[in-house]
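Tutorial, part two.
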Amino acid sequence: MLYRLITFFNMQTVVNVFKVPELRQKILFTLGMLIVYRIGYWIPLPGVDQIALVQYFQRAAETGSAAGRAASYVAIFSGGSFKQSTIFGLGIMPYISSSIVLQLVGSVSQKIKDLREEGPTGQQKIQNWTRMLTVVFCLIQGTMWLSFISRSGMVYPQWANNPLWWVMGIATLTAGGVFLMWLGEQIDRFGIGNGASMIIMAGILAGMPRAIQ
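Running the prediction step on this input gives:
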């Protein structure tokens, strides 16, 4: 009986939420952005031997190696997908890293402290710096990732030493990371909750069935 009452009130709460037009619009917008994120999550990076990549991480998981565990944790908590080497492989982590760096620098930089005190104008400048720093982190992390899979033989031979593939791969990963940053900002503005947190939550929920298994 108690279970039925709890279920009824929970369902009634959901129904009431969707009765509010503005709130319903925000929820549907957030869900739509997360669907876009999950679609991009499965678009593979050209030139990468996805079968070899999956087998590598399967062996790493079976042996309990540090590389396998690290890739799994990074994928879950960044919203990325190293195991499939997709266009969103870097996830939201470059954006989070740049935000953390600027927060740390802001604790010792008088210029950033002054910008914070300027209100919306100062915050906008800091946000622009965060975006630019995100691009830098994407370039660095994308280069490191491509170097790793290239050395490990997980790139097709005809592409491994091709400069055009390197340019394309780094540009694709950077564009994917910047797009996720933009996606998170749109959720901040027009959706519900913190955009970066919502993307991370979506990655965690998607990985829950496999993690439980």
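Residues 120-151 form the longest helix (32 residues). In part three we will examine how such features are distributed along the chain.
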